[in-house]
Amino acid sequence: MPRARRLKFVAPLRYRVKNLGTWTEGTIENLSQSGVFFHGTEQFPSNTLVEMVFEMPEEISGQKNSTVLCQGRVIRTTITSDSPDVVDLAVSILDYKFLHTN
What we know:
The chain has one helix at residues 58-61, and strands spanning 7-17, 24-31, 35-40, 49-56, 66-79, 87-98. By secondary structure, it is mostly beta strands. A 6-stranded antiparallel barrel has the order 1-2-3-6-5-4.
């Protein structure tokens, strides 16, 4: 099965273990309909269920100003050699919903 098309997209996001703890700031590197690759400071083991909040790009959502809450599963975590405080996380998207702001 071919991989979903990745969109280079640098943007902030917040993430945490699903329904637990405080939000951690991160930066999206790229995303697709099936997953997100981002840099952060909080490391989670593979298969951890996480929540992420970020602005979905118009190229994927079809709408402007689309803040989403995504549920996902950590697929891979890598500590970068040039900055040991930064981890790279690959997360598959299981579900998402648009957050409406008033």
